[in-house]
Amino acid sequence: MKVIETIQEFDQLIESNKPVLVDFFAEWCGPCKMIAPVLEELSKSYETIEFVKVDVDALGELAQRYSVMSIPALFAFKEGQVVKSAVGFQPKPALESMLNLIK
């Protein structure tokens, strides 16, 4: 999964109208580390969806934009709009249903 480095990079990706799953995370976050391998596995099954990570410590402004108060926070984008979001560790079936909304 690609880590977004700048707000401009994030905005360009979202505006590209490609389906995107964004994982807001932090290196120190235990549940973030637990969900990472599940997302990595799903990224191989859902090849039409772009999977990216946003470090809330590095890009706090983006976290604020989406009112991220707890992490991991997942946002599913389709055609530049948030279709669904979820906070905290999510089991694989819940993630799959989220991804099926944007594929």
From TrEMBL:
Disulfide cross-links: C29-C32
Residue stretches in coiled coil: none
Domain Thioredoxin: 1-103
Pfam family, one: Thioredoxin
InterPro entries: Thioredoxin (IPR005746), Thioredoxin-like_sf (IPR036249), Thioredoxin_CS (IPR017937), Thioredoxin_domain (IPR013766)
Keyword vocabulary terms for this entry: Disulfide bond, Electron transport, Redox-active center, Transport
Site feature Deprotonates C-terminal active site Cys, where: D23
Site, as annotated: Contributes to redox potential value: G30, P31
Transmembrane segments: none
Keyword Disulfide bond: yes
Protein's UniProt keywords contain Repressor: no
CDD domains: TRX_family
Family in the record: Belongs to the thioredoxin family.
PANTHER family according to UniProt: THIOREDOXIN-LIKE PROTEIN 1
Record-given protein name: Thioredoxin
Organism: Anaerorhabdus furcosa
